[in-house]
Amino acid sequence: MPARPKGGVGARIAYYRSVMRPKMTQEQLAEAACVALGTIRKIERGERGVSDSTLEAIADALGVDPTRLWADRGSAHTRVHDALPALSAVIATHDLPDDGPVRPADELRAAVSEAARWRLAAQYTRIARNLPGLLAELARAYHTAPTAQRAEPAGLLVSAYRSADAVAFKFGARDLSARMIDLMRWATREAGDPLLSASVAYVRTETFFAAHAYAAGLRALEQALDAAPAPTTTQVIAARGALHMRAAVIAGRARNSSAATTHIDEARALADQVPEGVYCGTAFGPHSVRIHEVSVAVSLGDDQLRRALDVADEWKPPKDLPAERRSGFYIELARAQLWSGLTDDAFESLQAARQIAPQHTRQHPWVREDTATLRRLKRADSETLTNFAEWCAAT
């Protein structure tokens, strides 16, 4: 491993990019960080400075804490963890927001949409930095609006809570996550939008995953499907399809192969009717369903693992899918490969997941578990695997 750089922020960015496995090119970093390639090149050469927001985007793409780029030292707590108290405070005072400015509706819509893009791109430090203020502003917008005009700010709150919940859930703040989901359900009722109800039912499933209450989670999703509108529009088709995808996975975790097969078949049939895209905050379409087929196979395990390997042999998720979803595919595939004795392939898949969405990969419990297993088996290059294990805190 090369010695850590002594230069400025540009040299540190180049260093962390070079020690990625596989090495990340400047082009790949620019794409992952949503920063112009020319900007990356100038920053690394020391020809221009870097703003906080750009630095955070680059740090997200590299999977390191931004403080590691500002100075050559570690950080006891990541910015995400440091931001959790602020998120907790704004949640606790959601019905008693502080006085302050409220931007026009179009600007609030744009801010909420941007936060959703960060969530789909697994840019969690950006969410942690910006969401406390945005949630407080949306709460003010809701409470200061006339009663008859509260539906739109309520709907924006649902989406913003979902982005904040992604951070809370993935960084282990499960009580805070559960509270956000409760507020999402409240705000959905205020918004009066059945599609938002389906979206919240999709997100709520994470609480059942966390509690290993798979059968109850399946019942909750099937109730949501019963309550969802008939699939007569693209948005409704996608909403119902997403619920079927989620139901298939949790049915697999419950070892209910019949229900898992039924739901994934329903999801596939609905996906054939719409183009791949993000609908009401959830990616859905033929590619998303295929990724969930792998997840279902891994959840069912045993003789179903061959299905996951077969999918990977003939198909890879396209780059225009959200980064979080693409990295999830490789994390699931790595587990199927590990359980099938394909240890080298499993490590390659974990590295691919890291390349696509470092923060999502680093926080995923399966990544830590499977990396620890690989180290015990001693089946991969020891130095490279050790570096990866240290990066994701595998024990």
Protein described:
By secondary structure, this protein is mainly α. The protein has 4 domains: 1-75, lambda repressor-like DNA-binding domains (434 Repressor (Amino-terminal Domain)); 77-192, no CATH class; 194-310; 316-395. The chain has 21 helices and 2 strands. The protein has a two-stranded antiparallel ribbon with strand order 1-2. Strand 1 and strand 2 form a beta hairpin. Helix 15 packs antiparallel against helix 16 (305-314). The radius of gyration is 21 Å and the shape is globular. The chain starts with 8 loop residues before the first helix and ends with a helix.
Question: What would a concise description of this structure say?
Answer:
With 395 residues, the protein is mainly α. The protein has 21 helices and two strands.
Q: Could you name the key traits of this structure?
A:
disordered N terminus, 395 residues, 21 helices, 434 Repressor (Amino-terminal Domain), mainly alpha
Instruction: Write down the overall mean pLDDT.
Output: 91
Structural class based on helices, strands and sheet pairing: mainly alpha
Q: Total helix count? A: 21
Count of the separate structural domains: 4
Gap between N and C termini: 20 Å
- What integer value in Å does the Rg equal? 21 Å
The main sheet comes to: 2 strands, antiparallel
Helix content: over 70%
Write down the secondary-structure element order. HHHHHHHHHHHHHHEEHHHHHHH
Arrangement of strands in the largest sheet? 1-2
Shape: globular
Low-confidence stretches: 1-5, 72-77
Number of strands: 2
Strand content: under 5%
